[in-house]
Design goal:
540 residues; alpha/beta; FAD/NAD(P)-binding domain; 7-stranded mixed β-sheet; 5-stranded parallel β-sheet; 17 helices; globular; binds NADP nicotinamide-adenine-dinucleotide phosphate; FAD-binding_Monooxygenases; flavoprotein
């Protein structure tokens, strides 16, 4: 007899969704959360400017109509406090807090085949047992800080965006360095520029930044969204990235040059990912189309940024739009026209160290700062899982099992780790995460119900199925421009963290295709998994 049916790791979108579902299915569950509140990545990433890149009305749970009708989103892209409030509202509305251990980290989780259980040890010294382990650690939970020597010697303040202090950080009148120009830095830089005396941006690779065109939602818009949620979720279910956006219905070759320009201009004004998805359907799959869209963005950068040298440095070259995940900007390029913002290109002259006074580059030049902000990304997808000591019954850790690259069946199961069901594990669909969890979590709950209904003990991914799924992930990414990320150090394939194996960390076949694969698997009796009666034999 275990303490709980399920132990869920993490109280972000995935963990909260899992807690609600398991309880609805009559299973007992406990959530272990390292933060002192719900939110997951939205709890930790509270840097100035943090907000979603997905439109609010679909960056939320779809499973409960009352929740959808009761919650009023304020902006097209909610900021961190608004998302945090939403998740706190969900936790309170479904009375989840009493089943969450906050400020508690799962240190290890060990599977025992003989007793068909997992023993979970936490930072508070507790040991809890469960039958089903549900890691919901999130794709972006472990920050990556490059090993710059000297960080600890810096006399000013330094911060990681992904661990931004709860107490407000005062940038006013300070000389601030920002390292990185990914989606996080792109949000932070315009905010920092309004407060700081001077912001110096250290850029290694420029990005294709699309204007977000944020705005407050009006009452009529909110009413209309609520009245049409049925259609909206249908659209989400049919969209490659799980967004409420219709396919463009055309490819570049369907139109002449002038019409292509008009379409892209319109998309640029509408903003957000609509620029990419509503313009042409082959932006990510056809090099010629991608070239036209990429050049259009470079033209925009040159037209916005007044200083031609800065403009050229900000222009991404030699790689396609989508090669790295395109950030959404809120007056990002315009910010470089401010007299208190400067750009330092470190592509050929890398950061060598952090000194007592600031940042030193390889050529020996040094700049002094009062504050350094590292917006240097994440050990994405696998980091949250491999930093926990998750062990098979045979004593093999998940980190060891994935030493040559993560392998999963459908992003959910791993050979050697029976009854571990990951939410958002490697191979889950890229795109808008909450709708993906609204599909994956009920699938997992169905699988558990299936086990219990048939008197089976455990479900374990088959090695051959994981290998086939790995090949499938590779084929899918290779059919798109996302696969060109090796030299670009793209986190989508683990290439941003030195030494991390380069494998596709997401399913790039589109959200509808992934949902169908899940459904087909279940319909075929959970093909690719072995369902076992006790005693369970270990595979690793
Ligand atoms: P990121 O895209 O991985 O960007 C990290 C940045 O740090 C890059 O510009 C990288 O340069 C730079 N960097 C790393 N090591 C460096 C070094 N040694 N020297 C100089 N620069 C270095 O990370 P992120 O910006 O945190 O974004 C990660 C993901 O989080 C996003 O793509 C998105 O999925 C998510 N996110 C979402 C939102 C949202 O939805 N609103 C907001 C923020 C983030 P290189 O490119 O040259 O490696």
């Amino acid at each position: 007899m275990t303490d709980y049916d399920c132990i869920i790791i993490g109280a972000g979108f995935g963990g909260l969704r899992a807690m609600i579902e398991m309880r609805r299915r009559g299973l007992t569950a406990r959530v272990i959360e390292s933060g002192s509140d719900v939110g997951g990545t939205w709890y930790w990433n509270r840097y100035p400017g943090a907000r979603t890149d997905s439109e609010s009305w679909v960056y939320c749970f779809s499973f409960d109509d009352d929740l959808l009708q009761d919650w009023d989103w304020k902006a097209r892209y909610p900021d961190q406090p608004e998302v945090q409030r939403y998740l706190a509202h969900v936790a309170d509305r479904f009375d989840l807090r009493r089943e969450i251990d906050f400020d508690t980290r799962v240190e290890c989780a060990v599977r025992d085949d003989a007793t068909n259980s997992w023993t979970v040890s936490t930072s508070s010294g507790n040991q809890l047992t469960c039958t089903y382990l549900i890691p919901a650690t999130g794709p972006l939970s472990v920050p990556y800080l490059p090993p710059f020597p000297g960080i600890e010697s810096f006399r000013g303040e330094w911060h990681l965006t992904a661990r931004w202090p709860k107490e407000s950080v005062d940038l006013t009148g300070k000389r601030v360095a920002v390292v990185g120009t990914g989606a996080t830095a792109v949000q932070l830089i315009p905010e920092a520029a309004q407060l700081a005396d001077h912001v110096t941006v250290f850029q290694r690779t420029p990005n294709y930044v699309i204007p977000a065109r944020n705005g407050m939602l009006g009452d009529n818009q909110r009413r209309s969204i609520k009245a049409h949620y049925g259609d909206i979720w249908k659209q989400v279910g049919e969209h490659v990235f799980g967004m409420a956006i219709n396919a463009a219905g055309r490819v570049l070759a369907d139109v002449d040059g002038a019409e292509a320009r008009r379409i892209l201009e319109r998309g640029w004004e509408v903003g957000g990912f609509r620029f990419l998805f509503e313009s042409f359907d082959d932006v990510f799959t056809n090099q010629e189309t991608n070239d036209v869209v990429s050049e259009f963005v470079r033209d925009k950068i040159r037209s916005i940024v007044v200083d031609p040298t800065t403009a050229e440095l900000l222009c991404p070259k030699g790689y396609p739009v989508g090669g790295k995940r395109p950030p959404l900007g809120h007056h990002y390029y315009e910010t470089f026209n401010r007299p208190n913002v400067s750009l330092v290109d470190v592509s050929g002259n890398p950061i060598e160290s952090v000194t007592e006074a600031g940042i030193r580059l390889a050529d020996g030049s040094e700049r002094e700062f009062d504050m350094i902000v590292f917006a240097t990304g994440f050990d994405a997808v696998t980091g949250g899982l491999t930093t926990i000591d998750i062990r098979s019954s045979a004593g093999v850790s998940l980190a060891e099992a994935w030493a040559d690259g993560s392998e999963t069946q459908l992003g959910i199961g791993v050979t050697g780790f029976p009854n571990m069901f990951m939410i958002g594990g490697p191979g889950s669909p890229i795109g808008n995460f909450p709708p993906a969890q609204d599909v994956a979590v009920p699938w997992i709950a169905d699988a558990i119900e299936h086990l219990r209904a048939t008197g089976a003990d455990a479900m374990e991914a088959d090695q051959s199925a994981m290998q086939a799924f790995g090949r499938h992930l590779r084929d899918m990414i290779d059919a798109t421009v996302f696969g060109q990320g090796d030299e670009l150090r793209s986190f989508l394939i683990g290439a941003n963290v030195p030494g991390k194996p380069h494998v596709p960390l997401f399913h790039f076949g589109g959200f509808p295709a992934y949902c169908k694969e899940l459904q087909d698997c279940a319909d075929a009796g959970y093909v690719g998994f072995t369902i076992k009666a006790a005693p369970v034999r270990a595979h690793v």
